[in-house]
Write a structure and sequence with these properties.
Elements (H helix, E strand, L loop, with lengths): L4 H10 L8 E4 L5 H10 L4 E5 L2 H14 L4 E4 L12 E6 L8 H5 L1 E11 L8 E7 L5 E7 L19 H6 L3 E4 L10 H10 L4 E2 L7 E4 L4 E5 L5 E5 L4 H14 L5 E5 L8 E3 L8 E3 L12
Parallel strand pairs: 1-2, 1-4, 2-3, 4-5
Antiparallel strand pairs: 5-6, 6-7, 7-13, 8-12, 9-10, 10-11, 11-12, 13-14, 14-15
């Protein structure tokens, strides 16, 4: 949020932030996004919750210097900030695998909550928009995005970097494929692949589309033609993508998904719609976040 200003502006626009609204920023870092939000809402309405005490102090100093009338409190962003709830707009600058319950509870009627949903791959993030209607009904829509925020502390992403040299030296055995490499902006497909073909990560620096399963020592390299692919390792990575793509086509090529936050068990279910051909999965639970050394 502090190093890529267009992402900050895009988030504030997506939330339709306006004057007089109560705003909560989760994981604000040095306070750039809170400062911009406070300039819109007016003084005394923007609050940030920062886990790192040193960063919280630094951010408050920055905001005080600007004189925008915003506050940073030290605390666990996953708990929100009940003391000033409810909030008209809540934004998380950290990616989470599922939606923390306090965030939804602290959302006011007609409120909007925006966050990144992360999987173990940084390649295909999802952006979740949660709204609470004036009647109190909660609705949540998940969309694929070209970028997202970094995950919460302790969350480990997969990485294709350690396999790059090996993939280049031995891209694998060529075989025919029924799947032409999907375009990068087929966000609905790639988001589904992040959940339905777990453990994959893309090497965006490779010359042709390269998908790696680091934990299985397997990979797939598209080409040399549109109807061929090279595969390596015990896991046929490309076959799994072929399967997900076929299911995505049968589901009507969805570009957005619905998230159900009403399950009494606490599980959060995602679906592309109704019917036997709909794509569906369950979000992983939140894991305990390790405490930082003082």
């Amino acid at each position: 949020m502090s190093t890529y200003t267009p992402a900050t502006v895009e988030a504030l626009q997506a939330m339709e932030l306006g004057p007089g609204q109560r705003y909560l920023e989760l994981g604000p870092g040095p306070g750039v996004s809170v400062a911009l939000a406070a300039a819109i809402t007016g003084p005394g309405l923007a609050t940030g919750v920062e886990r790192d005490g040193h960063m919280a102090t630094f951010a408050q100093r920055n905001l005080d210097h600007l004189g925008v009338g915003a506050a940073i409190v030290e605390g666990d962003a996953l708990e929100g900030h009940e003391a000033r709830a409810p909030y008209d707009r809540i934004h998380s600058g950290i990616g989470v695998p599922c939606v923390p319950e306090p965030w939804v509870e602290q959302l006011a009627p007609d409120g909007r909550l925006l966050t990144t949903l992360v999987t173990r791959t940084p390649s295909w993030p999802g952006q979740l928009l949660v709204t609470r209607t004036a009647a109190g009904t909660v609705e949540a829509v998940l969309r694929g995005r070209p970028r997202g925020y970094r995950p919460l502390l302790g969350y480990r992403w997969l990485n294709a970097l350690n396999h790059r040299a090996r993939v280049k030296d031995a891209p694998g055995t060529a075989r025919s494929t029924r799947l032409t490499p999907p375009p990068d902006d087929a966000y609905g497909f790639w988001l589904a692949a992040a959940y339905l073909a777990l453990g994959l990560v893309r090497d965006f620096q490779a010359e042709t589309m390269t998908i790696v399963s680091p934990e299985d020592d397997s990979w797939a390299v598209a080409g040399p033609g549109d109807d061929t692919v090279r595969v390596h390792g015990p896991r046929d990575v490309w076959a799994e993508l072929e399967d997900v793509h076929a299911r995505w086509e049968q589901a009507g090529r969805p570009e957005q998904y619905r998230l159900d936050l009403r399950d009494s068990s606490g599980a959060q279910h995602v679906t592309s719609g109704a019917g036997p051909k709909a794509l569906a999965w369950t979000l992983p639970p939140l894991a305990a976040v390790p405490r930082q050394a003082p």
